[in-house]
Amino acid sequence: MAKLNIIKAGNPVLKAAAKPVPVITKHIKKLLDDMAETMYKANGVGLAAPQINESLRLIVLDDGNGLIELINPEILETSTEMEEDTEGCLSVPGYYGIVSRYSKIKVKALNRRGKTVYYEPEHFLARIFQHEIDHLNGILFIEKAKNIRKVTEA
């Protein structure tokens, strides 16, 4: 495995819609492994392939309850309830803002074996899913956030 370079806001890959993964190859599986290692080493809770300069619909995330890998994820349903909370992003280091997200969603994706999987995350986990799926659609959290602030480390 290898820690990958996380690209920053301003790179055009982050503003483009990522391409669907047509076939799950050894390269895709290695990319998922490397993305997970990169996310953990960066102390993140999610990472989308565009953030490592790969225009592919791949996501890894972990809310503290174990790694989830998503290939070609799509949101099928959303709740009507919204929740506001603070978000940050590995591609926009040092900036945080309040983002409104659906409190519960239903997502369909493929796992690394090509099997269709469904998730119905709520609250914090639903927020991570939505944030990372936004990356696949060329949207950064700062485009949705209010009260954006820069935090400098002491």
Automatic annotation (TrEMBL):
Keywords: Hydrolase, Iron, Metal-binding, Protein biosynthesis
Gene Ontology molecular function: any one: peptide deformylase activity
Top-rank taxon: Bacteria
Cofactor details (free text): Binds 1 Fe(2+) ion.
EC number: 3.5.1.88
EC supergroup of this enzyme: hydrolase
Active site: E132
Catalyzed reaction equations: N-terminal N-formyl-L-methionyl-[peptide] + H2O = N-terminal L-methionyl-[peptide] + formate
Cofactor(s) needed: Fe(2+)
Binding site for Fe cation: C89, H131, H135
Family: Belongs to the polypeptide deformylase family.
Physiological role: Removes the formyl group from the N-terminal Met of newly synthesized proteins. Requires at least a dipeptide for an efficient rate of reaction. N-terminal L-methionine is a prerequisite for activity but the enzyme has broad specificity at other positions.
Name of the molecule in the record: Peptide deformylase
